[in-house]
Amino acid sequence: MKTKFELKPLAAGAIALLCGAAGPALTQAQEAGAVTAAPPAVVVTGSRIPRASLEGPSAVTVITGEDITKQGYKNVFDALSNLTQNSGFTQGADYGNTFTPSANTISLRGLGPNHTLVLLNGRRLADFPIAYEGTVNFTNLANIPSSVVDRIEILSGGASAVYGSDAIAGVVNIILKKQASGLDVNLKAGATTRGGGGDQRLQLTGGDSYGKLNALFSAEFLERDPLWGRERDFMSAKVGVAPTPLLWRKNVDTGKYIDPGDTCAQLGDLFGGSTVKYTGKAGSYCASPKVAPTYWTTQTRNSSQNLFGSANYELSPTTTLFAEALYGQNRSANNTRGPSWTSVATADTYFWNQNTKTNEAWNRYISPEEIGGVQRYNRSWDDQAASLSFGAKGAIPGTSWQYEAGYTASLYKSESHTPRALANIDSFFLGPKLGVDADGVPIYAPDPARLGKRLTPAEFDSITGTAVGNDKSWTNTVSVSANGEAFKLPAGPVKLATVAELGKQGFSNTPDPRINQGYFNTVTPSDVTAGTRKRYALGVEANVPLLEKLDATVAARYDRYSFAGVSDGKLAYNAGLEWRPATQLLLRANHATSFRAPDMNYIYKARGTGYYSSSTDYYRCAKTGQPLDSCEFANISPGANYVQAGSKDLRSEKGRSSGLGAVWSPSASFDVSLDYWDIKIDDLVTNLSADKLLRDESNCRIGGDLTSPTCADAIARIVRNPLTALNKPGEIKEIHVNPINAASTSVSGIDVSAKHVLRTQAYGVWISKVNYSKTLSAKSRQFSGDDLKDDREDLGNSDWRDKLNASLTWNQGDWSNTLFLQRYGKVPNAAGTAFLSPTTLANASIVYKLNQRTTLSVAVNNLFNKVKPDTSGGWPYYTVGNYSPTGRQGWVELNYHFGS
């Protein structure tokens, strides 16, 4: 006997609301007392047991494909990043300088992108092959075609008992459409009213049924223009601070610059005619306030092609064969700094000038006019992502049970192209090396005129090359699951679900071998990083009707990972209750344990070295009493060097999450929910950010605390030149950021959502929605001996403290109009000295159905053209990552349907 589900009034109301104004015909039938069929049971994210309602013991947020258009979202990532539950600061494609400028990710509850599990149709995807911030693994959200998205379900809180590792902060399940009829052609084009950053998109989506075969395909082609710093007036030049040095000679023995004479005037046309002689405390040099914005993209250039196809074949009445394939190709480019040269950069940056009989250091920043355009120094990435799933599903003969058996393979490849100076660049500017002195300092007899002579593009090509890196990640999984009715209790049937999985994943980061062969101007080795791990899992889940209005859900799952000669097994469980004291009211509670196996990058990372694009030496700023917005040691580019290595001794993270909530739905036109959530993680694996380490080091040294666990650790990680050094005394030499198991972190808060539908005879249907999330508490402890830190008041924590989304949609006839408001709560300013005030942005869209085949849409994001200013940290004069400098953006979208 097949399992039957009673659609309770509350569930029916929720489903009607999820469908919006699901059609006047449906509403009229309900008002007339007509009997409507119960919707089929579906699998909701966070459970493998089909149910007739999205309501359950844990809150699930749903974004529909229609929402992506009406609320002004550009793509799947844009929709997810604007979730109120996505409170965490992340670096993405539009961050500027980042390790992963061709990828986008989110951070539910501010717990980091590696603590949110991203699934495609309930299946895992390969990690992005380059680690986020050079440390953690994550899933890229940039390659999912929005045209085939049916809905996105977001479960906040631990779900390892169902999905295994990674699901500590929550699960994002992107569910694609299962069928289509005919062909839809979608054209979309947009631009910004302030200039730059335009984009175009073409989508083709279609499908049909051919007897027992149902097929669907989608093709998406995207082109996006870059947005340069110089294209925004407020950041087109550095104001009120020393301009960026372009050319200088320094007497290292005295610490003073050597006057460049009339060289600056001869180079005055460079950087758009902004080059001047600048005189500071240490002397004069050539400089320009336009260097940073000239060589800076705030939005990456992007060209991508994404293809998706699926097929279902009814082999028999009880068995269906299925296959899905996703392929994405993405080419992106950005720019974060121009080409510059510092003498003897592979040693101590100074040399013995045989002509002047002094130790000197030389520097030259090369302009776009000399190299053939600013794009000549772009970094670029060619990415390819693929995913294939196939298997069989259906009913187990002679039972009410359903099963699914399948195989999933996912692959991600990225080829990077990074401009680098060649090994001959010192001799280009200084002439031949004449040996070394008794202290090992190189000797040159350079011509000063060479430093001030402008380069030609051919000369620039002779001293620069391109390093090509190849990165890859993959995952394979075989899984078998089944669900059905086990037995009956007085209150109803007990439903069970079981799952067994076997998988393997791996990655490799292969730098250009020429880096270690002396081809480029570096002596820092760059090693191959690679590794694999296996896992298997067994899980069971049960839905138990305890009483007529009280249901319980329990689940347990055991996962075992094998990697680097280590085997680590974890058991996770969850339990939830649903109580309906009245048909209009649902009370729910849940508790779950979760875990995360250490990121593969943390485990296998070879000793890696590099440098940050910019760094601020907070200690020297504080020691000299200089404010950050004008400190000579702030936002130094290029920044400090770092050293990073993996560790095979890391333990798995252990998480616990709990929730309490209520859903009140007095009618099919209104519902409201309130949920409290609490998440704790022990043994958190982390690399402290270099900026945080520098802040901690400054606070500890200035405060005189050198022995507390956090201070001792921070000071040991920041390696400085001796104060007695001839060159760069006291400057940062390198920052060590190897991973550790931190003591603990915890975060708690509330989610509120409400929806109301007003149906009128004369003025159409009005749908209003509100979603609000607030972090009530966020505390962490780096080491067990540290005091508990309040992260909400930490001015180095860039996470949102609260977020609010509100929308109003008016549907009448062939028109649908939506106003969408987003309020962002307080975040620290760029200097980390105070909080910025909350900000509200508005999006608006109009969708008009021209006829049965054609729909025209117009959408405007940031309707009032707001850009949040923040001069506290200096250029670029806005809080990078929290706010966008783009301003108002507009799109026109046309969709035409071929077929019946």
From TrEMBL:
<keyword id="KW-0798">TonB box</keyword>
<keyword id="KW-1134">Transmembrane beta strand</keyword>
<comment type="similarity">
    <text>Belongs to the TonB-dependent receptor family.</text>
</comment>
<feature type="domain" description="TonB-dependent receptor plug">
    <location>
        <begin position="55"/>
        <end position="171"/>
    </location>
</feature>
<dbReference type="InterPro" id="IPR012910">
    <property type="entry name" value="Plug_dom"/>
</dbReference>
<dbReference type="GO" id="GO:0009279">
    <property type="term" value="C:cell outer membrane"/>
</dbReference>
<keyword id="KW-0813">Transport</keyword>
<keyword id="KW-0812">Transmembrane</keyword>
<keyword id="KW-0732">Signal</keyword>
<protein>
    <submittedName>
        <fullName>Iron complex outermembrane receptor protein</fullName>
    </submittedName>
</protein>
<dbReference type="Pfam" id="PF07715">
    <property type="entry name" value="Plug"/>
</dbReference>
<dbReference type="InterPro" id="IPR000531">
    <property type="entry name" value="Beta-barrel_TonB"/>
</dbReference>
<dbReference type="Pfam" id="PF00593">
    <property type="entry name" value="TonB_dep_Rec_b-barrel"/>
</dbReference>
<dbReference type="InterPro" id="IPR039426">
    <property type="entry name" value="TonB-dep_rcpt-like"/>
</dbReference>
<feature type="domain" description="TonB-dependent receptor-like beta-barrel">
    <location>
        <begin position="346"/>
        <end position="863"/>
    </location>
</feature>
<keyword id="KW-0998">Cell outer membrane</keyword>
<feature type="signal peptide">
    <location>
        <begin position="1"/>
        <end position="29"/>
    </location>
</feature>
<keyword id="KW-0472">Membrane</keyword>
<keyword id="KW-0675">Receptor</keyword>
